Structure formats: structure tokens, C-alpha cells
């Protein structure tokens, strides 16, 4: 039906039965009839929160606004540049063939899809800076992964320095007897504070270096060795230099119960009694240990990802495969570099409780090998893998998921 008056023209699509008048009052396209372009009479509606604040169209459009906005075929004139940007212009979804309203927004976007009886809400946040996107994703990944495995981290640290027992069961029972469940999470807050920025820097450095070193299609190789190997080593060194003091304080809080009240108290006492350089005790062996671990970890992860894509012939990797790939990479790198980690922990503890003080990394490795044998270099490997393997998988999974959630402008 149509109605003319005052030079304006209002036109609505006629329906065989019950007409959908929302197109007249809200400027929205009428709902498609059941069974058209979809299965089971479902519909597909996608919008963003910012759309509700656009100027009204349809019956309540202003005098100066083009008449017929939101009504297909209502204007005989060619659409102007303003009209081409109208938020209510209809598009057709290639998935279900139904009208979709969509407006790109600078900020948050919310997408709701209803098919049959299933409703899925997808929240996506646009981040204009890709570097900020990687930093935020890395921080979230580090905090989530470390909190999930905090009890295993505590047990592993006690086993590596030989306190509270010589097995996982003994350490667990001792902690539960003297401290309870809170003892398993001792130092976790400091751990999260340390790991969040550390993981953010690490993953950011790896992604940036790996993209820079990886040749584009048709280009020659920039370096003779795999780019992910060099990028992983660079990422490990970068994060360690920035966050090493937090790692040392966390270790002291875990081992020296009753000596420090909290993180700030430990920081002040170490500075006053042992000097600022004590915050970097064991930095050299730590760097020596981090470089091979990070290099093998990221190289294994990148290699396994490529193998997965080649075997399954896909460019997209889901959350579960990412979790498994990251866990496998963590197991490989942890086993290969564990002796260096043991020596680093022993050097960080220092002379606490009358323990032996090591001069350097080589002295620590040789002394442990002489006193305890080869087994001493792998003491705590079991709980270490129980902690590092899922932590690596969770970290990679959260990182990839957050990168998908935080959309860049060029991704749209």
C-alpha cells in the first residue's frame, strides 16, 4: 500500500497475511517469512550496540533527511554518499540468506545469532593498535594459565630446592599439614603480577620478531635458521630482563616462610640487607636457561601448528587443538632444559638455611651432579611437567582466543 501527501511519499511492502508494520515506525526491514532462506524458520540477526543511537529513519525521519531511508525501492533518485552510509541499508547474509543489519563501530561490538532454538552471543572488542592487542592478549593468557597451575608450581619449587620432602606426595602432605590449602597458593599473587607482564612482553616480542623475520611469499629467507627459533630466544631474553626481580622475590616468599610478610616487605628487606644487585642474583644462569627453553618452546609450537594445518588442510586451529599443541611444545622444551632450571633455582635461594652457595651456573651444575648424580639435575621434573605442560597449553590457547576477541581494524 502507498500514501502520498505534501510532496512526500511513504511506501510499505505488502504482505499476503499479517503485515509487519515495524518497517514504517522503526525504519527496519520486515521480517522474512518462515522457511525462506533458512532451515526450520530460523533467522539471523546481527547488530552492534551503537546502532540504537543512530538518527531515526522511516516515518519519523526529519524533513531534511532523504525520504524512504530503510525502505527498498522507495526513492527513485540515485543514492547519495550519505545514504550509502546509512546504518539501515540491508545486506544479505551468505549463510542463511536473510536480511542482516550491520554497522562497523569503533569500540565494542555485540553479535547475536539465533538459529532454531539455539542462541549464541559473541562479544568482540575492536583494538586499533595491533601491538596493544598482543600485549593485552599475552597478559590475560599469563594470568589465567599461572593461576590454574599455582599448586603445582608451589610443589615443584619445594622439590627443586629440597624442602618439605623428597617427593610430590610428601611435599603436598607437609604443606597441607602446616599451612592448609592457602599454602599451595603461597606467592601466587606475586606470581600473577610477574607472569602477566612477562607473558605479555614475551608473546608480543615473539609475534613481532617472527613476523619480521619470516619472509613473505616470493621473498628469499632473511636468516638461514628457522625464524621462530630466533624469535623465541629473543622473546625469552626480553621478558626475563624486564621481570627477573619479581621472579626472585616470588621464590623467596615461597621458600622462606615467616621471613617476609608480603611482596613489598620482601622487596624492602632485600634492598636494605643485601643490596639492589641481589634482585638480579642468578640473572646470567637464568638467561642461559631461558634462551634455550623459549627458543625450543616457540619453535616446537610454530612447527606443530604448521604440521596440523598441513595434515588437516585448514588455516584455522580451534581451542582444543591449540591447547594440545601448546602442551606438547611445553613438554618438549621443559624436558630439554630442566637441568638449567634446577641450577637457577638453587642459585636464587642462596645460603638460606645453611645451603651451599654456587659461584656460577657451571659450578652449580657440577656440584649437583657430584652430590646427587644425574637424578639431581632432574629432581622435580614430574611435577614440573605437570605444571608447565598444561600452563603452556592454556597460555597459548588463551592468547590465540584473545587475539580473535580483540579485533583489529584491518581484520574487519
UniProtKB/TrEMBL annotation:
The Solcar repeats are found at 129-212, 223-307, 317-405
Q: How does it sit in the membrane?
A: Multi-pass membrane protein
According to its UniProt entry, the protein's GO biological process terms are: organic anion transport; organophosphate ester transport; transmembrane transport
Give the Pfam families listed for this entry.
Mito_carr (PF00153)
- Its chief place of residence is mitochondrion
Provide the organism lineage as a comma list.
Answer: Eukaryota, Viridiplantae, Streptophyta, Embryophyta, Tracheophyta
The entry assigns this protein to a family as follows:
Belongs to the mitochondrial carrier (TC 2.A.29) family.
Alphabetized, the UniProt keywords read:
Membrane, Mitochondrion, Mitochondrion inner membrane, Plastid, Plastid inner membrane, Repeat, Transmembrane, Transmembrane helix, Transport
- Name the gene for this chain: ga11426
Protein name, as recorded: Uncharacterized protein
In terms of superkingdom, the source organism counts as Eukaryota
Is Transmembrane helix one of the keywords UniProt gives this record? yes
**Single GO cellular component annotation?**
mitochondrial inner membrane
Q: Where in the cell is it found?
A: Mitochondrion inner membrane; Plastid, Chloroplast inner membrane
Q: State the species of origin.
A: Eleusine coracana subsp. coracana
InterPro entries noted in UniProt: MCP, MCP_dom_sf, MCP_transmembrane
Amino acid at each position: 500500500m502507498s500514501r502520498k501527501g505534501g510532496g512526500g511519499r511513504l511506501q510499505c511492502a505488502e504482505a499476503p497475511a499479517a503485515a509487519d508494520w515495524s518497517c514504517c515506525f522503526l525504519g527496519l526491514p520486515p521480517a522474512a517469512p518462515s522457511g525462506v532462506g533458512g532451515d526450520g524458520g530460523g533467522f539471523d540477526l546481527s547488530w552492534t550496540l551503537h546502532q540504537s543511537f543512530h538518527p531515526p529513519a522511516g516515518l519519523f525521519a526529519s524533513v531534511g533527511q532523504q525520504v524512504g531511508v530503510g525502505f527498498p525501492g522507495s526513492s527513485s533518485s540515485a543514492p547519495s554518499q550519505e545514504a550509502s552510509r546509512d546504518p539501515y541499508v540491508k545486506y544479505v547474509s551468505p549463510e542463511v540468506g536473510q536480511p542482516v543489519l550491520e554497522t562497523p563501530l569503533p569500540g565494542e561490538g555485540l553479535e547475536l545469532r539465533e538459529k532454531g532454538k539455539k542462541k549464541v552471543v559473541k562479544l568482540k572488542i575492536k583494538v586499533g593498535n595491533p601491538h596493544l592487542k598482543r600485549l593485552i592478549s599475552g597478559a590475560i593468557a599469563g594470568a589465567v594459565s599461572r593461576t590454574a597451575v599455582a599448586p603445582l608450581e608451589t610443589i615443584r619449587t619445594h622439590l627443586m630446592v629440597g624442602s618439605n620432602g623428597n617427593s610430590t606426595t610428601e611435599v603436598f602432605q607437609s604443606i597441607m599439614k602446616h599451612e592448609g590449602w592457602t599454602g599451595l597458593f603461597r606467592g601466587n599473587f606475586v606470581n600473577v603480577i610477574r607472569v602477566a607482564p612477562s607473558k605479555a612482553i614475551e608473546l608480543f616480542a615473539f609475534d613481532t620478531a617472527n613476523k619480521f623475520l619470516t619472509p613473505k611469499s616470493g621473498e628469499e629467507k632473511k636468516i638461514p635458521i628457522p625464524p621462530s627459533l630466533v624469535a623465541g630466544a629473543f622473546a625469552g631474553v626480553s621478558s626475563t630482563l624486564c621481570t627477573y626481580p619479581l621472579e626472585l622475590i616470588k621464590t623467596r616468599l615461597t621458600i622462606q616462610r615467616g621471613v617476609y610478610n608480603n611482596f613489598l616487605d620482601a622487596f624492602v628487606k632485600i634492598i636494605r640487607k643485601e643490596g639492589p644487585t641481589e634482585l638480579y642474583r642468578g640473572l646470567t644462569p637464568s638467561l642461559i636457561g631461558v634462551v634455550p627453553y623459549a627458543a625450543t618452546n616457540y619453535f616446537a609450537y610454530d612447527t606443530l601448528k604448521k604440521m596440523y594445518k598441513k595434515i588437516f588442510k585448514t588455516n584455522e586451529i580451534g581451542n582444543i587443538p591449540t591447547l594440545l599443541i601448546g602442551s606438547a611444545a611445553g613438554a618438549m622444551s621443559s624436558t630439554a632444559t630442566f637441568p638449567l632450571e634446577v641450577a637457577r633455582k638453587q642459585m636464587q635461594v642462596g645460603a638460606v638455611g645453611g645451603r651451599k652457595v654456587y659461584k656460577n651456573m657451571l659450578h652449580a651444575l657440577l656440584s649437583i651432579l657430584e652430590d646427587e648424580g644425574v637424578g639431581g639435575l632432574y629432581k622435580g621434573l614430574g611435577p614440573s611437567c605437570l605444571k608447565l605442560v598444561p600452563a603452556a597449553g592454556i597460555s597459548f590457547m588463551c592468547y590465540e582466543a584473545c587475539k580473535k576477541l580483540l579485533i583489529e581494524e584491518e581484520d574487519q
